[in-house]
Amino acid sequence: MCNVFSEFIVFKVSQETKTYPLSEKVLIERCIKNDEQAQRLLYDKYAKKMVAVCFRYCSDYETARDLMHDAFIKLFRNIGSYTGEGAFEAWMRKIVVNTSLEFLRKNDVLKYSLDIDDAVTVSDEQASVVEQLSEQEILKLIAELPHGFRTVFNLYAIEGYSHAEIAKMLNINEASSRSQFSRARVLLQKKILQNR
Predict the structure, then answer these.
(1) Which domain holds residue 166?
(2) HSE on the CB side for 12, CA within 13 Å?
(3) Would 119 disulfide with which of 14, 48, 65, 186, CB 3.0-4.6 Å?
């Protein structure tokens, strides 16, 4: 039997490096047993990344924090269903995204933004301006998109869901998902050009 304290997980938190004396596998096993210390370590490890995921959907930091906390509650209730297949972070991200989408549906945010037609055509030459922006600048511009556009853009371009999956998640048809993504891209390009 291996000594779990000889295994370390190292990851970046802002400018400093933080080390945990337990492997991710051991943390998960202990979380399944409702070990509060392990839950705290897992939370500390992923909270910053997951609140950023929530923020992409709601654009309000306090709401994003609340959604992240709700997602962690769901995660700890259901951690026993994690099979170990695939990355744990990807499994966790799915819970966080679904929690964010539940919030949007519950508050009917998508109802008022899926039909927005405020997009114009931008040439491919102008689109090259994107390469000059930092990741923070791009994320800020994405956050300024109308809810429907932003939601579909995040699900497709960032999370990697297909339009068929998005349509099912948002209870819209696949053509609407494609249309919203296309409009989001054009509107995002327009915002980028306006900010340059």
Answers:
(1) 110-194
(2) 2
(3) 186
